[in-house]
Design brief:
alpha+beta; 7-stranded mixed β-sheet
Length: 306
């Protein structure tokens, strides 16, 4: 799929003659990208990038082109799904390469009205990179709200359920933390513009993007620490609950320990135990046990153990 950037993303056929002033955008799957790479300045470098497994975001600045890869977490299911995108930019020619699964989504993004009036490939490329982080501030705010809800409902949620939710969010935030770190490295390289591939005004533009991603990176770090604090608070509550349970069990055991001692004492069944033959021995023993239990309860309450 080929489009003219300088003509409001007008679609043209592959065999349509291209004028010198035309700015071209191609959105391709991997196999067509290999076939269309014959006339590129850095065909070998592009083929090498296509042969590699995309495992992170990176960029390579060449004298007359820019080649890179993007591994973008899917915001719906970031732990199980990622979007792999490769790009190649040389003068007046931008190629975006995506896998067949997400090609339609990428095409819909790049053909949006906001990209239709870019005018040149440099600006289009910059806007494409900026679109990677558009809305991410609100996206991270949703994480913050979800974590705040977990904190407020900590006493109502089951410990296992809360632990699973916090662990999932921490893993997702770790993924975005790494993603923003990689974007920061990319934008830093682009802002330096060591090959002078981009016009001078784009150095400050990429520096601005670097600042935005840096703030997102710091935000994810803060949210990860917040999730860690919630998990520590949950563990503290569990420990307090366990301590209360152990304290109650200890007090109950202590209360009934004298009764166990009396039971064992009178269970020895010696012949010359006068209390056994006393007519009121049974009732006297009951009164003694009740007095002992009540005395212990009063003592424990004064000490604050009950």
């Amino acid at each position: 799929m080929r489009y003219l950037i300088n003509k409001e993303l007008q679609e043209v056929a592959d065999d349509t003659p291209i004028k010198p002033q035309d700015e071209i955008l191609e959105i391709l799957d991997e196999d067509p990208a290999r076939k269309h790479s014959k006339n590129l300045c850095y065909r070998k470098e592009l083929i090498r990038t296509l042969d590699e497994t995309i495992s992170y975001c990176k960029i390579e600045m060449l004298p007359k082109a820019v080649i890179g890869t993007l591994l973008i977490p899917d915001k719906q299911t970031p732990l199980t799904s990622t979007i792999s995108v490769q790009f190649y930019l040389e003068s007046k020619h931008l190629i975006i390469i995506d896998d067949a699964k997400h090609l339609a989504e990428t095409k819909a993004l790049l053909l949006d009205k906001s990209f239709a009036l870019m005018g040149d490939s440099y600006r289009f490329f910059f806007e494409f990179l900026e679109s990677l982080i558009n809305g991410d501030t609100v996206f991270l705010q949703n994480y913050e709200k979800r974590l705040a809800t977990m904190e407020e409902s900590m006493s109502d949620m089951l410990p296992r359920e809360l632990s699973m939710d916090v662990t999932r969010d921490r893993r997702e935030l770790l993924m975005y933390h790494s993603y923003y770190q990689q974007l920061m490295d990319m934008f830093e390289i682009l802002s330096e513009n060591i090959t002078q591939f981009f016009p001078d005004e784009y150095s400050s533009q990429f520096q601005r993007l670097l600042g935005r991603v840096d703030r997102l990176y710091d935000n994810t770090q803060m949210l990860r620490e917040y999730a860690h604090q919630i998990r520590e608070m949950q563990q503290s509550q569990i420990d307090l609950h366990q301590n209360d349970t152990m304290r109650i069990l200890t007090v109950v055991t202590t209360i009934f320990f004298p009764l166990s001692l009396i039971t064992g004492w009178y269970g020895m069944n010696f012949k010359n135990m006068p209390e056994i033959h006393h007519p009121f021995g049974y009732f006297i023993l009951i009164i003694v046990c009740v007095v002992i239990v009540l005395g212990e309860i009063i003592y424990f309450k004064k000490k604050g153990w009950l």
